[in-house]
């Protein structure tokens, strides 16, 4: 049976074992052992597989053995020790020297006298057990074994440790570079033979409930689709988040990042919203939510994520809030207090008349001063700002467009960006802003006010029902929604 060793064969073992392909490693009357094996077209997970003769239905030789069976046995190479002083040769150098001079010889006791020439005493040699390398592509495959024992090398106690280390090294080399770890790179994968094992037409016919197959549910039958058909259905159309009655809807509309359309409301509709919040005693909480949204956007515009780190304490951002003497100004002072709590150097510049008539503004100024903030009338003493927040408009009274020339002139002279809090629809003449924040309902704003952000002020559905507005919150997990 040894003549079949090294042959590439294809073995049919029937059901349930299937088909095997590989190279015969061992063979006897009862079993054959294959290496580099494939089972049913897939690489076998182990390095070897043993098949019983009783399980074999058919065996075909694919390719004759490339290696002489005699070469599969172990060979012995003698490494000669020279008496010449010099650097010690490595095992690989001795192997190369012996292979070029004497060649590889078989294990034979009669070779002991071949080195005796001219009456000289033969030098001692160490037999080295070499396993042939059957992988032509991997020059590191195979392994070597120093078959001599410590006693044969003249070793004592230390020789035993050297022998154990050599054995461990041999096992590591065998596991890493030996035939057991050698992938079958030389064998071409049989795509046609593997494809023939799977009858796609018969399986598809059975899935669709053909003859001989059980009836499948309609959902499985409908799953058979053409290559140009969509597997996933089209997403359902998004419900509109806001529907305004005609008298309260402006001609303008906005679009969110996810493609939803939000119509703009008229200034009258926004004024009605703020009046309803005041009537339900929700004005304070709504202004707090607007201030929170403006503070978050202000931190982004002045580089707070970078400049407020502990290592950048030398460049704390400076924000100046220009506040009117109304509810919009009170929201601006509250924004300054929130920025102050984040470590921003905040300053409030008051503009207008009648500050004593707005109780909410007075309360916020007192809280801001207690937190350590600075406030003053006009722009005297205002620091050089990194960002200017303009809170000069009262959305409740629809007032505040005029009377702030000093503040606006100072803001135009600054090289800092400006952020508008609840601005008028037309903005302020010759005073552009980077962005504008409005709460509740969006309104058409002039292009000079920059990008529009809608703040979530959490108005109750009762207010929208009273205004005949169909409202579904578009914010999701965000409290500030950019509009385009």
UniProtKB/TrEMBL annotation:
CDD domains from the UniProt entry: LSm16_N (cd01737)
Protein's name according to its UniProt entry: Enhancer of mRNA-decapping protein 3
Amino acid composition bias (Polar residues), ranges on this chain: 91-123, 132-150
Listed GO biological process terms: deadenylation-independent decapping of nuclear-transcribed mRNA; P-body assembly
Similarity section: Belongs to the EDC3 family.
A molecular function GO annotation: mRNA binding
Lineage: Eukaryota, Metazoa, Ecdysozoa, Arthropoda, Hexapoda
Compositional bias ranges of the Gly residues kind: 153-166
Organism: Pieris brassicae (White butterfly)
